[in-house]
Specification:
Vanadium-containing Chloroperoxidase, domain 1, mainly alpha, elongated, 9 helices, two-stranded antiparallel sheet, 2% strand
Length: 211
């Protein structure tokens, strides 16, 4: 169910550089067709599941490939988790309030997150961008195809009213730039570990073996 919410009066009005644009976007979003608002609210949460599924498919694909491919497939979600944790640390450190709570008289399509669930950077954007970036390393064609989906997933957070645009831009850049670095930094030890584990009798059932 769509929840169009009128924000309570609040003495603060958010970062000066983000308020006007946020108002423009949310006012436009509130006037879009009902089906579009429903789709936006569904996609902003469910889109993350697409990336989870693709990372799992990447693991399945790597089972018949070389040790390096399997290592990268296993490390991709690790890299995403590392950057997510970094994003969460930044959130707790900066304490930027959600615009749907901080700015008076605005509407949000999605319910505003609970107090203490901070705004900057956007974790959804971090996860979407980090997943797409690691897929660019592990499965380039799919990575290229889903990169625009990651952009839409990030922008949907502003559309539904739960983030400023700078929240999603920062989160997207954080995931896009840092996740591949984490992945590549772990690639060599990860490849060695996969090679050693595949030689054990039971583990090829989990890790597969090159065809």
């Amino acid at each position: 169910m769509i929840a169009l919410k009128l924000a309570d009066e609040h003495p603060k009005a958010g970062p000066d550089y983000g308020v006007g644009l946020y108002r423009d976007i949310t006012e436009w979003a509130a006037g879009t067709p009902g089906w579009m608002r429903e789709l936006g609210e569904l996609f902003t949460e469910g889109g993350i599941l697409l990336f989870v599924a693709l990372l799992l498919l990447g693991y399945r694909r790597a089972r018949r490939r070389d040790d390096r491919s399997m290592a990268l497939a296993l490390l991709a979600p690790v890299a995403v988790a590392v950057i997510y944790a970094l994003s969460e640390i930044i959130k707790v450190w900066l304490h930027e309030e959600r615009p749907c709570r901080d700015i008076p008289r605005v509407t949000s399509i999605a319910p505003c997150p609970e107090p203490g669930d901070w705004s900057f950077p956007s974790n959804h954007s971090v996860i979407a961008a980090a997943s797409a970036a690691t897929l660019l390393v592990t499965w380039r064609l799919i990575g290229l195809l889903v990169l625009p989906v990651a952009v839409l997933a990030a922008l949907s957070r502003v559309y539904v009213g739960v983030h400023y645009l700078h929240d999603v831009a920062a989160g997207f850049l954080l995931g896009l730039l840092l996740a591949p670095l984490v992945l590549l930094a772990l690639m060599v030890p990860g490849t060695r570990a996969v090679a050693a584990l595949r030689r054990r009798r039971a583990l090829p059932l989990v890790l597969g073996s090159p065809s």
